[in-house]
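Input chain follows. Return structure tokens only.
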Amino acid sequence: MQATATTLDNAQDTVPVNSRNKVVVASLIGTAIEFFDFYIYATAAVIVFPHIFFPQGDPAAATLQSLATFAIAFIARPIGSAVFGHFGDRVGRKATLVASLLTMGISTRGYRPAARL
């Protein structure tokens, strides 16, 4: 009876350090952009949204209504991340990112009221 020794290829088992750093940097950039976007949305909810989306009526009520849209967005973020995270794992991150961006773009463009330009 003879025994043969075989070695495993270590290159397949280990994750390169560069890819880990790349993931960390990409996550940092994505999170920074997301928080900046949410900050801009919060600022617009106070300054711009009451005049564009709720022009009739009391200005204080219009501001409260625009802040309510901000609150809905604040609540919907974790739900959306769970749903799109699931689809990102199942379908693929690139297709899910495209679907997410299309959903945001279509819903933003579709709700814009007829304003005087």
